[in-house]
Amino acid sequence: MIQVMVDFDRCDANGTCAALMPDVFQIKADGQLELLNAEIDDSREGELEEVILCCPVGAIAHS
Amino acid sequence: MTNARVFDPFAPDAGQHLGGAFDDQAILEGPFGYAVLGYELAGAVLRDRRFQNSALRLMEQFGITDGPVHDFRARSIIMVEGEPQLRLRTPLARFMSPVTVKNTRAVLRTIVEAIADDLDDSAPIEFHNTVARRIPSMVYCHLAGAPMSDAPKVQSISERTLSLLSRDPSLTPTILEAYDELFAYLDDLIGRKREEGLGEDMLSYLIALGDEGKLTELEVLTEATSMLEASSVNTAHQAALVVWTLLRDRNVWKRLSSDPTLIPAAVVEALRLYPRTGVVSKIATEDVEVGGVVIPRGADVHVAVWSANRDPERFENPELFDLDRERNQPLTFSTGPHNCLGQGLAKAEIEEVVGFLVERYPNATVVEDGTRVGQAGGRWLVDTLLVDLKP
Ligand code: HEM
């Protein structure tokens, strides 16, 4: 399993992550980000790499 | 609303308001529409998709109501929401995230050094024109895989297209002409790249996505156009504003000289105090309640970033430059779904300029006589910035 980490002090709620991996990241009704799943299957590493690359503030990382 | 005093977020004296709520109101109504002054409400509006960027309406107010420029704006990344926005956003994002920007640092350094080599440091230099204005367009050329000799053209086009934001309708012909030049320039550049063979750059990547059918030809052009207009003018002004701020605070400048790892925090703090993009304007696409006020559909909502960034409810001693602020998240690059896509790159550009000065010219000072920095319509502008590199 891969650990998904969000630095909420940096997070800017841009939401690209939530659009790319909606089962892992979600923009709540108040517009802020929620991490739905802190662990994902190894097979999804590529998807997560794309999300990390697309975060404009570099707030996402993995184990 | 029962606001007796008139407060105009665009007025020249807007800067006299220290920041945050005015007369206890974080949102105000006036002849301009609504102005959001407090940090929390400002963030809420910027994150709310029911508010749309006002750039298209501004164009229409300038008399640009149809034709290629109007159509470009209507389908550009700042105007579209949801799936269509994401289609435009992700292909670009990979070229400017902090993760990628790490690899761009070496290029940024080369650009800054090339510019510095042209400088005559024996007398004070006008920093905005001779340094700050030249960097972002060179960075764009690198991103787009264009020859560096195109940079002055890119800079000039970016400046003229974004002059829309100065809200001066007499500029309409200038703006239309600039977009014509922009479209023609990109057409030509894309043609040249196809002939020479695609590379690793952003524009090649977009062209390839077009060829694979993942973006339409129109989307490729729209992407490249948005990137060009957004790349240069704000970054140039913001870089000069940051240098102006840091050089004038000698204690901070000394700390940066002895510990350059503090530069990123110093840049963010200067961005907070002197945001080039001091007002981000939106339009309500339906009735929306904000801070107890119902904003009717179609109303203009101006987010006063300059005020939100100095809101005492969010930032302790907001008027002070504090290198040690925690959770320092100014709204200079907006926030939410349309936050600035280029912010990682813009910050890196500015950090490299500051890093270069700190290292090569640690004693540099601002020559106040001959420096003109001000605020117009809530936006911070640098007219001239005279710097003595070797006092
Ligand atoms: C210090 C310089 C810069 C400042 C202050 C700045 C500011 C902003 C702001 C405030 C917005 C958001 C508008 C909104 O909320 O509707 C924005 C959006 C954007 N910026 Fe920047 N920007 C800068 C540099 C750049 C650079 C260098 C690039 C590209 C190379 C860029 C590309 C973009 C794009 C493409 C958007 C639209 C994003 C979207 O709608 O999804 N910006 N910028």
What does it look like?
The complex is a heterodimer of chains A (63) and B (391). Helix content of chain A is 24%, strand content 25%. Chain A has 63 residues and is α+β, with helices and mostly antiparallel strands. Chain A has one domain (2-62): Alpha-Beta Plaits. In chain A, the strands form two sheets. Chain A has a three-stranded antiparallel beta sheet with strand order 4-1-5, covered by helices on one side. Chain A has a two-stranded antiparallel sheet with strand order 2-3. Chain A starts with a strand and ends with a strand. By secondary structure, chain B is of the alpha+beta class. Chain B has a single domain (14-312, 330-388), classed as Orthogonal Bundle (Cytochrome p450), CATH 1.10.630.10. Chain B contains 16 helices and twelve strands. Chain B has helices spanning 39-47, 55-61, 68-75, 82-93, 98-117, 127-132, 135-144, 151-161, 172-196, 202-211, 217-231, 233-248, 250-258, 263-273, 305-308, 343-360; strands spanning 27-30, 33-36, 51-53, 125-126, 279-284, 288-290, 293-295, 300-304, 365-366, 372-376, 379-384, 386-388. Chain B is globular and about 55 Å long. The complex binds protoporphyrin IX containing FE.
